[in-house]
Amino acid sequence: KAGVTQTPRYLIKTRGQQVTLSCSPISGHRSVSWYQQTPGQGLQFLFEYFSETQRNKGNFPGRFSGRQFSNSRSEMNVSTLELGDSALYLCASSLMSSSGVPYEQYFGPGTRLTVT
Amino acid sequence: AQTVTQSQPEMSVQEAETVTLSCTYDTSENNYYLFWYKQPPSRQMILVIRQEAYKQQNATENRFSVNFQKAAKSFSLKISDSQLGDTAMYFCAFMKQGWDMRFGAGTRLTVKP
Fold first, then answer.
1. Dihedral sign of CA atoms A77, A82, A84, A86 in order
2. In this structure, what are the phi and psi dihedrals at residue A49, rounded to the nearest 5 degrees?
3. Percent of chain A scored above 70 by pLDDT?
4. Rounded to 10 degrees, what is the CA torsion of B91, B92, B94, B100?
5. Over 90: is that where the pLDDT of A38 sits?
6. B86 CA to chain A: closest CA distance, Å?
7. pLDDT at A103 over 80
8. Chain B residues with beta carbon closer than 8 angstroms to that of A48
9. Residue B45 and residue A92: Cβ atoms within 8 Å?
10. Cis (ω within 30 of 0) for the bond into A25?
11. What is the pLDDT of residue B35?
């Protein structure tokens, strides 16, 4: 089975711009989560989608948004980029059941976003 | 809110020896899941081991085992017969049923030849 894929792998943007990151989960996985990883804050949960619905959201401003498509692929969008948004953005997919029982998460390689 | 604490920012171990990484967490929940993830220098996060809180038996995966102390809210990872390929950042993580996963700050483990 193919693993979780994320595109692009690297991205350089300017302050004020917006960016869209893409994540394709493992086939059959319906839960997709997004995380931001920075040296200072570590790994922080952004949001989680299951069957096209955002079930959970971390403590991030409204500039961070996401969506999930019917094929479980997910995108996250960051508008009005700030220097502090520079980070590694990780996507993870899971075979989580509809009742919310989680199985292990499988992570993608991440998208390295640099904001200048 | 759930918090996860890894008190050892860095550790090192000689090849073939045993090392234990510590993790404590804070929650008022009774049903939850705990994980150890490994992030090698290549950056791909890999699940090492998983433990369900309702299970009293400690999880084991080959050279990796945990010491889960529910009352103490402790979840340590023991790596036996350490190998050079075990060099990585190790993250302890907590997940409440149907909720997001919370990670600790990580422990950087170096296995020395």
1. positive
2. -120, 145
3. 93
4. 0
5. yes
6. 18
7. no
8. 100
9. yes
10. no
11. 94
